Amino acid sequence: MPRIPMGHGFRARIARVGDVLRDHQRAIRRLQWAIVGVYVFLLAVPAILPLPDRTASVFNNLTILAQFAFWGVWWPFVLVSIPLFGRAWCGLFCPEGALTEWASGHGRGGAIPHWMRWGGWPFVAFALTTIYGQLVSVYQYPWAAAAVLGGSTVAAMIIGWLYGREKRVWCKYLCPVSGVFNLLAKLAPWHYRVDPHAWRRPVRRIESINCAPLLPLRHMKGAAECHMCGRCSDYRGAIALSARSPEAEIVGVAEGDGWQTALIVFGLMGLAVGAFLWSASPWFVTIKQTAATWLVEHDVYWPLAQNAPWFILTHYPEVNDSFSWLDGAVVLVFIAGAALCVGGPVFAGLWLADRILPARRRPGVLDASGRLLRGRLAGVHKLAQGLIPAGGVGVFLGLSATTLTLLHHEGVPTGWANAVRFLLLGLALAWSLRFEWRLAGLRCRRWPVRATAVGMVGLGLAPFCVAWVLFFAVW
Fold it and tell me: Are 72 and 411 in contact, with CB atoms under 8 Å apart?
């Protein structure tokens, strides 16, 4: 049956991009396997090479090249790609996604267990991976990178083999960055729009499609969970890649829930800040020295020992870099303290803003776990969605610090960096406050009330801003 016209001009060209992805799935698979090969090579080979000396560089040492590839380019700019193109990284390029789907296609095809559907996994997986990465110095050492990234990949393949049939069960429920990508994709200016009228009265049918991330295509309303792979393009004549406002999903679709709020407020804006800042903070040194003095005065010496294996705490005596048990404990304390001292005020600002605005009741809206959202709690979760730009830029700035360090080591001037950092942070904060203004407007049209509510959110963001000022300009 001939294709039903989608329209003319820009809209039709965008829809055609989705069709091209649909029609070239075999080429996409080949690309994914090529990326898998590069990924495995950069993880495995540096792990068996000697650690580089101080004179090693990107141009003469594979370990430094892999470090720059993963932490200087790969992860910072994958993060940037999500609000620009949605989760196209997940659907078109991610080696872990390709491997878990392949394993699922050759595995036992078991039913997804109830425990895996728990809504807290995205936050817990992000927190544990972030903290563990700091304890083993994942940005500096190839064994640590192999443990964190390779361990995640092996787990993805095991989950794929156990559950689903050609599905990405790992990606949907357990991937450590899936929750972050879910949030950032809400800012994407593209999504696969579903026409409910065309779905109910399809002009033609095509063979069934495999939606690997397990989405209910008929009811898909946003880009948060969609992997942008193109497999469903023009399905039933009802699904098409479409342009939209980058603010459309957060303002008009996304409701959020408790775990998403925790990930934004205490994860991206709290815990991640602590993870990026501890190594540069004089407060960390003061806490450690105070604790060490107390231990020595009380004849307790075992916490000062540097005998933990490398996969528990950083332990590379050949380059004079080993953590004591006290080091590990203080890292945990610092990160937890940052999560509370930065994330706590952010949550308080959201809570106060919600109290200032008229009550918001949405009795028909369910969160990700199927619980009913109503009253004040639902209002806080909705307002928290507006902080996604600020939280996302904070993580990018933290990751890009490694990029700048490596560039500086190669002799590239980085004097421009702080100006760009503050510009990005300022733009992200302004966008988040604009979101808060629009979200407040959904509940109250009176500008003094809206301005007061947004002001409360702004006050709550103050420690978040101060933390980055300390990192960029003071420490």
Answer: no
